Amino acid sequence: MRLVIAVDAETLTATTIDPWNAVLAVAVAIVGWILSRVTRKAVGKLLTRLQGLSEDLRDLAARAAGYVVLFVGFGIALSIIGVPIQPLLTAVIVIGVVLALALRGIAENFAAGIVLQTRRPIEVGDEVDSLDYVGDVVEMNGRAVIIETFDGRRVHLPNSEVLSNPLVNHTERGARRSAVEVRSRSREFEETLRDLADVVAAVPGVLPEPPPAVYLTSIDPVRVIALVQFWHQPPDGLTVRTDVIRALAASGRQRTEMATIVAPQPAPPLTPSPWI
Question: Model confidence over 250-274: pLDDT tens digits?
């Protein structure tokens, strides 16, 4: 038994539909509808794990995912009974391309935000260096990573730019190394190096492991230049470095040695030293 549907347009045509195809099409449509609801709930549940996404944005993304699955299911069902869906597909593709071009920046940042919040290279509270800005992460949302710099500015770094450029996390290891350069008028450089290491190790905030290291970088007839490296907790960098400079200066005065202490280590001079 076959059903015959007559369509009267400019010319009369007859389309024959197999009952089994009709049943299969209905079944596929029902399955597509069920899958769309499951997809919507699953996407909504997944997006609740991401910080900084508003409830409206999560609901919109979940609805969009459900509609895509529903559209695919109904499209397959219509194709089973022989209904031409090429014009509809063409219209949907055109609309999709226009929306993709119009919302490209938003989509890129949203996708990058998902990667950042699932892979977690950084977290709220970390001290980071990205796009020539250094500061503490105060918020991560679907559009940007928001950091607060040490001079009190709040900077919104686009997620896509953060993900596609070098990203330094100063906090992940749990310790950070700083360095100061000491220029001392002393000819006993071996004793000077030992004294510098002992002085820095006794400064509060300097971690015992790894221990402070002192490297000789230059010797000339009137001075010794050494690089002093020490480890500390990330939030205490400026405070500990200040205490280290004070301790080194006080030690130099006690030894009646004139010393210049520089932090951070300056760039080498463009002209050679007159003693070379």
Answer: 887 777 666 788 877 666 665 555 5
| Residues 119, 220: Cα–Cα separation, whole Å | 51
pLDDT at residue 276 tops 50: no
Task: State the average pLDDT for the chain.
Answer: 80
Please name which of 174, 180, 177, 169 lies closest in space to residue 244, comparing C-alpha atoms.
Answer: 180
Instruction: Tell me the whole-structure pTM to 2 decimals.
Output: 0.57
Within 10 angstroms of residue 223's Cβ, the number of other Cβ atoms is 20
Q: Cα(145)–Cα(123) distance, rounded to whole angstroms? A: 10
Q: What is the pLDDT of residue 231?
A: 92
Provide the sign of the torsion angle of the four alpha carbons 74, 76, 81, 84, taken in this order. Answer: positive
Which of 35-44's residues contact partners 24+ apart within 8 Å by CB, and which partners?
35/69, 35/73, 36/66, 36/67, 36/69, 36/70, 36/73, 37/66, 39/65, 39/66, 39/68, 39/69, 40/65, 40/66
The two structure tokens encoding residue 2: 């076959």
Give every strand in the sheet of 154-158, ordered side by side: 154-158, 144-149, 133-140, 127-130, 167-169
As a whole number of angstroms, the distance between CA 269 and CA 275 comes to 13
CA–CA separation, 108 and 106 (whole Å): 6
β-strands 259-262, 223-232 pairing: unpaired
Query: Please, which residues bridge with residue 213 across strands?
Result: 229
Cβ atoms of residues 156 and 167 within 8 Å: no
Residue 266 DSSP label: P
Looking at the chain, the whole-number percentage of residues with pLDDT higher than 90 is 24
| Runs of H (alpha helix) within 15-119 | 19-47, 55-80, 86-102, 104-119
Q: Is 104 exposed, middle or buried (0-12, 13-18, 19+ CB in 10 A)?
A: exposed
